[in-house]
Design brief:
single chain; alpha/beta; Rossmann fold; seven-stranded parallel beta sheet; six-stranded parallel beta sheet
């Protein structure tokens, strides 16, 4: 069986790229896999990879001062370019199954289905209109609201992709519920939880007494950073620090970060490249990781933190809440609930032995989410969809 996987990012680059790599490793064991991704570099893999370059339209828009704030158009143009390139390639590389990332695969679906292929939509976020609704509530923190909105044409493409898809793959039960609430049939939406490399992500010894709260990721409207700042300051923990690892995606948020860092010396910002730097260094000097997102299809960094022996605090709108056992390996808070997050931070700071024990349990729990489990779940879906034949002993 010939399988095509498409995603407008690089293999292993960022959260989306890691999820793409997860999927590629799993699909490669179930058929003859071809991956179409962005960029120009061909990585060394056991399957065929076709980088289709980067959108010149998007690049031109972002280089034009008067237009660069329209990030919604930049994303749309990038995805349209990628989708068009892949759909043209599929005329020469037909497949039996195409699995494409939401918002990036409308034309490719049409091209593949015209040749008789099955189409699976790979959605790395929650249902996109739900995601848009959550982002809209965060616009008060931005100087220019246009940068945070999702282009209406993107939402239209997503709706068409959902209609074309024979199946929708999501990363969590949290994400699945947003699709069901939007009216999609439960049997059309399947969950395949990402896995974590527990050899790369492992516990290390913390060398100071600072209660360090960690956030890792892009600073963007849906990530709920202002609520984390408020919770950290409200908790008022002695000898504490909030470490933000990542850059801001908008001018308004960059300004917000600058003002916050200047005002509060115990809030710091660092920049890491986890594809090159050792991630255990930043996790190893931290006490807890917080993912305060108002919307997140999963939040792989929380599972990575758990693998490093950290308890985590996540919101109920994060897909990774699926793997958090409240009060056992971390805490789950309602989105935007500053008081609850502050109380959870204070509890962990005041109860070091409990915090350490929660971290140990988090490490053990993270080991369950491995490549073997991922492969088992993916294979089960293939069997249910009659794409492969069962092997009987």
């Amino acid at each position: 069986m010939k399988i095509t996987l498409t995603c407008n990012t690089g293999l292993g680059t960022g959260g989306q790229g890691v999820c793409l790599e997860n999927a590629a490793l799993g699909l490669n064991k179930l058929g003859d896999l071809t991956v179409f991704c962005s960029g120009l570099t061909v990585p060394k893999t056991d399957f065929t990879v076709y980088p289709v370059g980067n959108s010149p339209w998007s690049k031109r828009l972002l280089s034009t001062p008067i237009l660069r704030r329209r990030n919604d158009w930049a994303v749309l143009l990038s995805d349209l370019y990628f989708d068009h390139q892949v759909s043209e390639k599929l005329k020469s590389y037909p497949c039996d199954l195409i699995m494409g990332v939401a918002g990036q695969t409308n034309l490719a679906f049409k091209a593949a289905k015209a040749q008789g292929a099955k189409a699976w939509l790979y959605c790395l976020n929650n249902y996109l209109p739900f995601m848009q609704q959550q982002i809209q509530q965060e616009l008060d923190f931005l100087s220019d609201p246009t940068v945070a909105t999702m282009n209406p044409k993107m939402l239209k493409r997503f709706a068409e992709e959902c209609q074309q898809a024979d199946l929708i793959i999501v990363l969590s039960e949290v994400a699945k519920q947003t699709f069901i609430q939007a009216g999609l049939a439960p049997e059309k939406v399947k969950v395949v939880t990402p896995f974590v490399d527990t050899q790369k992500f492992h516990p290390t010894v913390k060398n100071d007494q600072v209660f360090r709260v960690l956030y890792v990721g892009t600073i963007e409207p849906r990530k709920g950073i202002p609520y984390l700042f408020q919770a950290f300051l409200q908790a008022d923990i002695p000898n504490s620090e909030l470490l933000i690892v990542g850059g801001a995606s908008t001018r308004g948020l960059r300004q917000f970060m600058t003002e916050t860092l200047n005002k509060h010396t115990n809030i710091k910002q660092e920049f890491w490249n986890f594809s090159q730097d050792d991630p255990t260094e930043v996790f190893g000097k931290s006490s807890v990781l917080v993912l305060p997102s108002v919307e997140d299809g999963f939040g792989l960094v929380a599972l990575e933190a758990m693998a490093c022996g950290l308890p985590v605090i996540v919101t109920s709108n994060c897909g990774v809440a699926d793997v958090v056992n409240h009060g056992i390996n971390g805490f789950i808070a309602p989105p935007r609930d500053v008081k609850t997050m502050a109380n959870q931070l204070r509890f962990l700071a005041e109860n070091e032995s409990i915090r350490r024990e929660m971290g140990k349990v988090a490490r053990i729990n993270s080991q369950q989410y491995n490549q073997a489990l991922y492969q088992h779940r993916l294979r089960k879906i293939f069997l249910e969809q009659d794409l492969i034949t069962p092997i009987f002993n």
